[in-house]
Amino acid sequence: MMSFYYWFREGSIKDHGVIYCEIRVDGEKSVPFSTKIKLHRKHWNSKEQCFNGKESAKHQKMLDFYELRFTQIYTQISYEKPSEPIRPSEILERHRFAHVGERKTKEKEIEFMDVFKEFLADQNKLLQAEKLSELTVKGKESKYAIIREYLGKKKIISIPIKDVNTSFLDEFKFYLQTSKYQDSTIEKYLVLIKEVSTYGVSKGYSKESVLDDYKIEKAKAKEPVSLTKEEMDKMEALELSPVQRLTLDIYRFCAETSLSYTDYNSLSDERVEIDKDKTIWIKLNREKTDITQRIPLNDKALEIFCKYGGAASLPRLSNNKLNLQIKEIAKMANIKKHITFHTSRKSFVDYTLNELAIPATTISAMVGWKDTKQLSRYAKVKDSTIKKQFLK
After folding, report:
1. I need a surface site. Which of 27, 249, 298, 370 has the fewest CB within 10 A?
2. Is 199 exposed, middle or buried (0-12, 13-18, 19+ CB in 10 A)?
3. Count of beta carbons in the 10 Å neighbourhood of residue 249
């Protein structure tokens, strides 16, 4: 079996240093080598073999990349030499040959988008190993396509990884801003580019990431947008086309159950349960977080559920079509709010929080959150709720 041991090695400045590593296979150790992760001594927990502090997630990703690479080499050697013992020195030697010696002549030629593709390939391997969700990986793949499109518009045929610097990020950020991307989306793009740059360092494609000190501005939280029951009833009273009626049924069902677009589309009869009181429940592990979501069907949700004959028979439309149609229906109802299909989930949270006065912890269980931290992004406590609760 292969394992890894890490420790902090102090540099020339007191209490500042680098994390070193040993590869261990069946009691045999490799020579120590630097992971190139620089940090203060207090940010490394030797006993628990983990990082502390706000940079811990970034540092852990670098270790994950190393371990994934060494595991790939270990598997390759075991396939090539099934009857021979695997030596940690050979694992390290192969890694260094492929990612250091070979790249002494190539380092300046390494293309950022090639590193990006390799990064995505490793992300897909983590997906197959059930370490990442499909939604996370697909999101990164779609951002890769947009970045490639941006380079094409700038007539940049190729860009070395060393040239993906703060100036590049500032120019790309300006492009996204002028293309009317939301601040929260821009933040995700910049974080991803930094992540790929860090990946390049861990692979030996560049000596250091020039983006380590680039500060990404945290997107300001926007006022959550939701629809009231009255507004949804107003839309239902309209004369609608068949597609619009399907759209509104899907939207209303999700507004009554808090299901996201992805979880709604994965809904099957196996995820529907009936308890001893004959209450119908939807119970599933959320696609995005793998956290259990439990929601009983209220009268309106049950009406739509029965209309189509069960979970598997509920209508399905593309996310793009749903967004286009729900905006048009809201316009027809003279509802002057900027809504998307995801507003349905926010409408559920707003209603349960402000109208039903359900505790935040219960709402979290119903919508499938780990805790209540996300609540402020979905709804805020209204003055009327405070008044009703405080002065009752």
Report:
1. 27
2. buried
3. 18
Distance CA 23, CA 74 (A): 11
Q: What is the average pLDDT score of the chain?
A: 87
Which of 183, 193, 202, 204 has the alpha carbon at shortest distance from 151? 193
Q: What DSSP designation does 308 have?
A: T
Interatomic CA distance for residues 344 and 185, integer angstroms: 20
Q: What are the tokens at 154?
A: 């700038």
Q: Which residues pair with 9 in a beta bridge?
A: 18
Q: Does residue 266 lie within any of the structural domains?
A: yes
Six-digit token string for 141 = 């793949």
Same domain, 380 and 292: yes
Q: Please give the DSSP secondary-structure letter assigned to residue 131.
A: S
pLDDT per residue as tens digits for the range 337-371: 889 999 999 999 888 888 888 888 888 888 888 77
Residues in the chain: 392
238 with 376, same domain?
yes
Contact 32, 53 (CB under 8 A): no
Mean pLDDT of 239-254: 95
